[in-house]
Design brief:
- This protein is α/β, with parallel strands linked by helices.
- The protein is built from eleven helices and 21 strands.
- It has helices spanning 2-6, 39-52, 72-80, 115-127, 143-154, 187-199, 218-225, 259-266, 290-298, 330-340, 362-368; strands spanning 10-14, 17-21, 32-33, 56-58, 84-88, 91-97, 104-109, 131-136, 160-161, 167-170, 202-207, 229-232, 236-241, 249-251, 272-276, 302-306, 309-313, 318-320, 323-325, 343-345, 348-350.
- The strands form seven sheets. Strands 3-4-6-5 form a four-stranded mixed β-sheet, with helices on one face. A four-stranded mixed β-sheet has the order 7-8-10-9.
- Helix 2 (39-52) links the parallel strand 3 and strand 4.
- Helix 8 (259-266) runs parallel beside helix 10.
Length: 376
């Protein structure tokens, strides 16, 4: 919201609603934006501002987190469309000279993040000319691309798309249209609540979890396969927790933002659990494979790794009684919190305030469900 306001948008909370007055094709002529530690915000705004502003520089206060994450696949694609870009080997700070992007055909790699393709899709109607996007290499995290298309079409944009996500065509001469949108519940955050409810005696219902394009809704089927008592009626999820869980092997690419929470549940499952095909977890706010594994093992877990996988051997309990480092990563915070709910001794989680990035009410919701959480 801060970045959008800096660009000239008005965002006005009205009870459960948010009214947005956009800036159209004329943002404020600012020269610097700071997206904090939000990778998706950075990438989407890189695309939009490259299409609209003559010059913009992106910076961050999180040099050891977002500042280390690669953006060069997106930057290379924008350069092919006519932008002039200066960066630190594809990383922040990034200076872009744009506003006169051309249409045509552009290639972008899908191997690191689907957000690069989404950024080009969001920018395409602002260029004013036909644009064809070809996605090369492996495509990771495909469900967010379907969400992107869903949102664009709701906003009145025509997009032709190849079913496998390899090719998109956006005709020129289009404009985003104001609409009333209903925002569904957030499956990645809800996955942490589901995992917490599954490992403890409980009866929890989570509302507004619709059948939509969020890949993380697969967290429901994963927990069901592990033996959890979950029922999804297309509007809400009910979890009656405390049943024994069993391990399994799961391709985590569709639900990468739920993998850490599901790993926390797998700590208490019988046997071995493996989440594979998740190498892109290494290029998030931290290395969510190595860093998360190290913190869980401090608590008494038995977690190992491969370059593209987390492997968990279930235990009856964790000893806890230590201080864990959340690495300024909201998903690590959620995962560590769920893991410690059944620890034998309390655990201190450093930097837990960074949960506000995606789920500010997370600890309040857990307290409402009976968890004992103290802020230090």
């Amino acid at each position: 919201q801060r970045c959008l306001r800096d660009l000239g948008a008005e965002l006005i909370p009205e009870g459960p609603h948010l009214r947005v007055q956009g800036f159209g094709r004329q943002p404020k002529p600012i020269t610097q934006l700071n997206p904090g530690n939000a990778g998706a915000v950075l990438r989407f705004l890189i695309g939009v501002t490259a299409a609209l502003l003559p010059e913009i520089t992106f910076v961050t206060d999180y040099a050891q987190s977002l500042g280390k994450r690669p953006q060069d696949d997106l930057l290379t694609a924008l350069e092919a469309l006519g932008a002039r870009i200066e960066s630190r080997d594809g990383k922040l700070p990034i200076r872009i000279q744009g506003a006169n992007l051309r249409g045509g055909v552009v290639e972008v790699s899908g191997a690191i993040s689907s957000q690069f393709t989404s950024a080009l899709l969001f920018a395409a109607p602002l260029i004013g000319q036909d644009l064809e996007i070809r996605v090369t290499g492996e495509i990771v995290s495909q469900p967010p691309l379907k969400q992107t298309l869903q949102v664009m079409r709701q906003a009145g944009i025509t997009v032709e798309a190849e079913p496998e996500g390899r090719w998109y065509k956006i005709p020129g001469g289009q404009s985003y249209q104001p609409r009333t949108y209903s925002v569904p519940g957030d499956y990645p955050g809800s996955a942490a609540l589901m995992a917490a409810a599954a490992i403890l005696p409980s009866d929890v219902t989570i509302e507004r979890l619709y059948e939509d394009e969020q890949g993380e809704r697969d967290a429901i089927s994963v927990l069901q396969a592990m033996g959890a008592d979950l029922v999804h009626d297309g509007q809400r999820v009910r979890i009656r927790g405390g049943r024994p869980l069993k391990g399994g092997s799961f391709d985590g690419d569709r639900f990468t933002d739920a993998v850490l929470a599901l790993t926390a549940a797998a700590l208490y499952a019988e046997g071995r659990t493996e989440f594979y095909n998740v190498a892109n977890l290494r290029v998030k706010e931290c290395d969510r494979i190595t860093d998360y594994r190290a913190e869980l093992n401090k608590l008494g877990a038995r977690v190992t790794e491969r370059p593209d996988a987390l492997i968990i051997d279930g235990v009856a309990s964790l000893h806890g009684g230590v201080e864990a480092n959340a690495r300024i990563d909201h998903r690590v915070i959620m995962g560590l919190t769920v893991a410690t709910l059944r620890a034998e001794a309390p655990v201190v989680i450093r930097d837990a305030h960074h949960i506000a990035k995606s789920y500010p009410a997370f600890f309040d919701h857990l307290r409402a469900l009976g968890a004992r959480i103290e802020e230090l």
